[in-house]
User: Fold ABC transporter domain-containing protein from Vitis rotundifolia.
Amino acid sequence: MAASALQSSPSHFEIEYDSASMQSHNPKTRKPREVVGSDGEDGGVFLTWEDLWVTVSNGKSGSRSILQGLTGYARPGEVLAIMGPSGCGKSTLLDALAGRLGSNTSQSGIILVNGHKQALSYGTSAYVTQDDTLITTLTVGEAVYYSALLQLPDSMSKSKKKERADMTIREMGLQDAINTRIGGWGVKGISGGQKRRVSICIEILTHPRLLFLDEPTSGLDSAASYYVMSRIASLDRQHGRTIITSIHQPSSEVFALFDNLCLLSSGRTVYFGPAHAADEFFSSNGFPCPTHQNPSDHFLKTINKDFEEDIEQGFGGKKSKEEAIDILTKAYKSSDNFQQVQTQVSEIYKQDGGALKKRSHASFLNQCLVLTRRSFVNMYRDLGYYWLRLAIYFALTVALGTIFHNVGYSYSSIKVRNTQRVL
Ligand SMILES: Nc1ncnc2c1ncn2[C@@H]1O[C@H](COP(=O)(O)OP(=O)(O)OP(=O)(O)O)[C@@H](O)[C@H]1O
Assistant:
């Protein structure tokens, strides 16, 4: 990435769009993007899943289906948002697609990458998990830089890696916190929202062609959520990356950034299709979004059955949440959207996208060196990990040493030493 690009990159949360990308933010006028591949490499990643079931075994109490026959697709240059009430299976769907399901789960159905059954090779995909697993003693800049050293190939110079790290930090609006420690238990550092952004930085450093994000905006205020999501969306539009994100409560501005929407309730699809057409789908089935209400709030309110509250159906009086979900799932199964999803999936099957190429990363030796250095920095700064341990070992040494203090070198002293050793 050119240094000039770094210098000219926008200041805190100011994002510059050219007219084409601005236009692309209007979901109704957005055109399918040309797939150019990331970093000038081979084309994008098409992901399809058909009749996907995920079952979890609960030991003696039997098994439970978390996902029930989901079908869908994600295409390069598009953002697919997975939405639904808490516990509906959003993270499970992401995990299943990314091949990260736990050992007590089993899955059936077909998941294809570029029309082939193949594993996601190194560097092709990245996954931003819901929990931030960061080294608390490092500063934001260090955390991202070490990650760049570990992930990017040896053929890239250190200065380029530093540039990439700095650029990514700027893109996530973290430049003001670059020298602040991440912090954790007992040590105040950056805020929860900033930690979220550091986690995203670390994952997008390698410019993966397929990006999974699990609740990327949790802990962010609405402005930060918008800037972070729009940054991710606009970058990926430019490079033809495929983004699949689960999200809880997008503002209407964030919602407008999504191309497709997968709405789940208790592991079943309530809606899959263009995000901008979801409103029409709900209206036509008797659940119109009230004026001045955020459509995504309305969708979630309608399909959340955790709280018993009847919902107004435009032409059928009040309906229980169960009934509303039933109406919508059945309506989806018989809708044009469902047919279009099936058509899209079979069209993607026919495309021969080819096998994914593995990207190179830092060599084993380099990774060992970077990890050792990072570990020393961490130990040096962590009072509990390093200094207290040192004090304990010192006290132990002194305590053990005093056992033999002034024992002498005579025959009887040797006997005493042996007795002390046995003791
Ligand atoms: N490995 C597992 N073992 C047992 N239960 C599981 C497992 N994975 C998921 N579940 C259950 O499946 C359901 C869906 O979980 P999941 O994490 O996918 O929901 P979610 O929609 O992402 O929720 P949230 O929005 O709260 O993160 C939950 O009831 C969860 O307890």
The radius of gyration is 27 Å. The chain has two domains: 3-279+335-350, 389-423.
